[in-house]
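During the second half of the funding period, the structural biology subgroup turned its attention to how the target accommodates small molecules. The most pressing case was iron/sulfur cluster, which had performed well in the primary screen but for which no bound structure existed. We therefore specified the complex as follows and requested a full 3D prediction, including the ligand pose.
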Amino acid sequence: MKKRFDTYIHEVHSLSTIELLAYFLERHPGKVAFSTSMGAEDQALTHMLAGLGKSFKLFTLDTGRMFQESYELLEITRQRYQLPFEVYFPEASHVEEMVREKGINLFYDSIENRKLCCHIRKIEPLQRALQGMEIWVTGVRRDQSVTRDDIGVLEWDADLSLIKVNPLVDWKSDDVWNFIREHNVPYNTLHDKGFPSIGCLPCTRAVLPGEDIRAGRWWWENPALKECGLHLPKN
Ligand code: SF4
């Protein structure tokens, strides 16, 4: 797969977003996975992928600590696109042990605790969901945070041995919202209430006008460390 990555990186640089998605769906039938958090970028990608009419694995992670608005959007999206939407949950025994040892709201106590919670509720289910896949499509954009400013449209994920495809890497926030309005794509109603980036309820707050778009995520931490680990750069 790494050899194919080296070939692809030369072939895809001039493709449009839709052409890029079609390119990988055609070359990796049944082996393309799209992990959606149902944020605005991911909703736009769900719309594009559904329109291509090819089979792919669509999944989301239910951490157990999500907003009710996110669950409502999950159901609206499932009905709108009529796609087999898979939902992955954390291993119950791991959550039980973590809560027994460190408490239900451990993430506020230390960065280590927060990363442990993210690992159990997000990373392990993500790794399980991606097993056997060759292509992992994500909705990350380069200007979303300081931790994402050097990501490329394609990345080799050595840990998972798959190619990570970031079709929206060069999109700006306005591009995403123009697409959503133009195509009447369903989106999380929290976006209209000051939440540009939505994660788990206890770790997400609304932002003030002029604040960074990810200022409401893990707002008590240093911005350079604010990732759950799903999209951290691999050096
Ligand atoms: S975002 Fe917060 S609640 Fe969600 S998995 Fe990470 S630490 Fe846990």
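Two results from this model are relevant to the next phase. The mean pLDDT is 92. The first strand starts at residue 32 and ends at 35.
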